[in-house]
Amino acid sequence: MDPSEIHKLAELAKIEIDDSHISEVTARISDVLALVDQLQAVDTRGVTPMAHPLDTVQRLRADQVTEPNNREAFQKLAPEAEAGLYLVPKVID
Amino acid sequence: MHHLSITELAQGLREKQFSSVELTQNYLDRIQRLDGELNSFITVTPEAALAQAEAADAALAAGSAGPLCGIPIAHKDIFCTEGIRTTCGSRMLENFISPYDATIVKNYKQAGVVVLGKLNMDEFAMGSSNETSYYGPVKNPWDHRCVPGGSSGGSAAAVAALLTAGATATDTGGSIRQPASHCGLTGIKPTYGRASRYGMIAFASSLDQAGVLTRTAADAALMMNTLISFDPLDSTSVDAPLEDYNQSLATPVAGTTIGVPQEYFGDGLSVEVAAKVQEAIDEYEKMGAKIKEISLPHSNLAVPAYYVIAPAECSANLSRFDGVRYGHRCDNPKDLQDLYKRSRAEGFGDEVKRRILVGTYALSAGYFDAYYNKAQQVRRLIKQDFDEAFAEVDVIMGPTCTSPAFKFGAKGSDPVAMYLEDIYTIATNLAGLPGLSIPCGLVDSKPVGLQLIGPAFAEAKLLNLAHQFQQVTDFHRLTAPGLD
Amino acid sequence: MEWETVIGLEVHVQLATKSKLFSAASTAFGAEPNTQACAVDLALPGTLPVANEQAFRYAVMFGLAIHAEINHESIFERKNYFYPDLPKGYQTTQLAKPIVGAGEVEISLSDGSEKRVRIHHAHIEEDAGKSLHEDFHGMSGIDLNRAGTPLIEVVTEPDMRSPEEAVAFAKKLHGLVTSLGICDGEMSQGSMRFDVNISVRPVGEAEFGTRTETKNLNSFKFMEEAIVLEVERQIDVIESGGRVIQETRLYDGDRKVARSMRSKEEANDYRYFPCPDLLPVVIDEAYVEAVRSTMPELPEARRERFLADYGLNDYDAGILAGDLATSHYFEALCKLTEDAKQSANWIMGELSARLNSEEKTIAHSPVTAEQLAGVIIRTKDGTISSKIAKQVFEALWLGEGDSADAVIEAKGLKQVSDSGALEKMADEVIAASPKQVDNYKNADPDKRPKMLGYFVGQIMKASKGQANPQAINEILLKKLNELL
């Protein structure tokens, strides 16, 4: 793990890391990866990954609209909203 | 009256020894007086609490009150509370007034409890010492130089300092049991899917589970009766019959087979803690339990597997905090990318950022199989260890933590030292099993815990065994020195 | 060099459920911004998804209609990326185990040939919100009403070889999903959106060329234009010595230009992993059979029925049965007019032409089946001539009357069949045309019927088209023959 890889991860995770911290962050992440690398020694051939502790299936909901319009309450939480819309710096495709 | 257990308080309210308003005011006064030092609450809600207490007194007078009516409790600040700030210990949600109640918050409202406020915690429940909270560390009432454990550090400290009768909490890798151990409390994490996760701010969705911290197992049973419900709003909520956990408390221990995993007594466990845990197990043997040495061979892999799975899930769960619809937004973003990156950099603390980055790495192209998939395979091996053990024993017992509460800053800057705090508790979360910690003695004048792990849905059995232990021991009655 | 075009499609089909895929908010189109975005859609902290059964039923219906394997276990994955219209910071979709496996769709081409297009799979996923680019002081507005609307994404194999084939497939798919009732088919509202993968290769070459993906086309016309343009561009690039770069492109249907979407080119790593909030969805054989037994009539079967019941030709039956709204219109018209041939002619002719010229769909036709039936009935009973019928249709289109009868009445378009009036007109024309009468008299009897046309024309002109041509013919013949 080197600083350039950390920059790539930070870009994917949308977290700014300033240059004065990058070596510290890199070192700490490397510590964690050293810990989890213990997994590599385990023989897991033929073991099905377990994404979930519950051995059960998805319950499905009936197709009914029960949610009222709560826009006013929700938009009170917004850093910036206008005309019922959430505002963000210009989105460029 | 703050020395009374919930069970005793409920009786006192019914017998009109005191009113809920008096009780509530007493706790509010204590919080006012003591919590400046402890910092166990992030938000205290006196007006709302007193209003709830008045309503509870009316219900008690009318005879329509349930068992928890009028009992003051507090919620970990990870649970959304309508109209009340819900921070999750983060700067990201410093000004977030939740527009809705978590299901478990609703459950307690319906039961008529009084909510004193919101309890401090490690930021987004990521931590084992409460030192990652944006709202400052919480002191352990037993020793103010020490941490209360985490992430439910505020919940544990508040109950231990008698600032609330009981507290809700959450446990993703030990966040209820480890603080219970460090603060001398009873703490239970139910089976995954037993308590609703709706309105509980997600850290790692397949591991997170709500539970309670109380002073006795009987209190925990009372609080669990209200906590547990089937919730159609949570797809992972289990639709199984509800139990009355009080009913089975008195069942005798005799005939129970207790498994003691050799792996939980290896290197790293303090000799003194090992001795206290062994004495507790001996106590069970005296009560007629059969003790059996067992093996959970993949135990040493629980921490590494967890630190892939939990970060992977959290890296996605925390993407919603983007400064667009709620939460922290940086000043004067120069463009959209700047808004995302600075809002998140400013809103999240170091440990949260670290876990997001580790999780991002574990899921990224080229590493997914080596990390995420591998960890989920190891998770199955860990689960299979438990399945095999529970074919032979009714319950597993061992230490909750390697040692008593440590001093602030003791784990230094290496996150891995902190991660190993949860070495005995994490496997339970990976397997989705219920776990409980009860105090079993003092080491260096600080409490240590005995951990009980059960097969899925064995909450009643765990509470029963814990209660029986508390019938023959007094560790749960010990309170931090200097408490009035 | 001769080039061959290779096209594969990814089609986003919005499912016509009442509520969203994972929340109980409405999916209705056209509401005020963010009034149909509930706590789950906004990804408020602590909220959780609960999947909508109807979306699965619809997906299964689609799978059965394309003769695909239904996967009995399907799972949801999170696809991670940041975008303001994606509140959770990930899209919940299906990657490893989609609900619908491989299938096929047969298309008919204008040369009468048929072709099979293989479907790779179809999966369920949630739609995103919308970024509105109107200027709010240099900012974009985000509307999340659409966020969480269920989609199936239908992914074809690269089996199409021309824009015509691609459009034929798209129309076939439109007919299929509207006939199933699983999508409202409103292209202008984004109910069906096409991503087109295009590459070219020299004829005879086995390897595919490098492909580009043109995203988000929402009309058949734009899709056709975009393909033609992109094929030309790729051939130009290659023939001038360049190489096609794999990229995402955007077609601007108003300006008829396409451009590369550079922002999508940044190395994106979506870090798919199973969504821990959602368990595997299990669809058993009994469920599939129950859905199969309630499948509505599909275009193929309807076409057979139209051939048998209405005596239509192959081509007309294919068009009229291909699309649900068209078939409904046709059958309503037939029932009212009891004349399948006229009904078909009107729909295929005047109505289609008019709809196309205004880019309207038959579901939104300004002239209803009831109104058009009035036109046909009044033509058949001789009230109006077929020429006047078109005028009445136009008036109905423009909303100048509620019914054919009202228009005929208001505009005085009734055909003159009254023999007294017609005889008077015939006498006048004969009197005014001595030369033509002489010619008629002196002509060879075989040629006389042809010469009648002049007199008929004059009377039609004088009656402004309202004279009954049949009656005029008879009267003129009688009167002219009397002069012989």
Give your account of this protein's structure:
The complex is a heterotrimer of chains A (93), B (484) and C (484). Chain A has 93 residues and is mainly alpha-helical. Chain A has a domain at 3-41. Chain A has helices at residues 3-13, 22-36, 71-75, and strands at residues 81-82, 85-89. Chain A is flat, with a radius of gyration of 22 Å. Chain B has an 11-stranded mixed beta sheet, with helices on both faces. Chain B is an alpha/beta fold. Chain B is built from 15 helices and 11 strands. With 484 residues, chain C is an alpha+beta fold. Chain C is built from 15 helices and 15 strands. In chain C, the strands form 4 sheets. Chain C has an 8-stranded mixed beta sheet with strand order 5-6-9-1-10-11-12-13. A 3-stranded antiparallel beta sheet of chain C has the order 4-3-14, with no helix packed on it. A two-stranded antiparallel ribbon of chain C has the order 2-15. The B-C interface holds B 79-80, 86, 88, 93, 96, 98-100, 102, 197-202, 204-206, 232-236, 312-313, 315-316, 318-322, 324-326, 336, 340, 360, 363-365, 368, 372 and C 39, 42-51, 78, 80, 82, 84, 87-90, 142, 269, 271-273, 276-279.
Supply database-style keywords.
heterotrimer; A: 93 residues; mainly alpha; two-stranded antiparallel ribbon; B: 484 residues; alpha/beta; Amidase signature (AS) enzymes; 11-stranded mixed beta sheet; 11 strands
Q: What is the structural class of chain C?
A: alpha+beta
Q: Are there runs of chain C of 5+ residues with pLDDT below 50, and where?
A: none
Strand order of the largest sheet of chain C: 5-6-9-1-10-11-12-13
Uncertain stretches of 5 or more adjacent residues of chain A = none
Kindly report how far apart the N and C termini of chain C lie.
73 Å
Order of helices and strands of chain C: EHEEEEEEEEHEEHEEEEHHHHHHHHHHHH
User: What percentage of residues of chain A falls in helices of 4 or more residues?
Assistant: 25-40%
Helix content of chain C: 40-55%
Label the overall shape of chain C. elongated
The largest sheet of chain A, given as strand count, sense and whether it forms a barrel, is:
2 strands, antiparallel
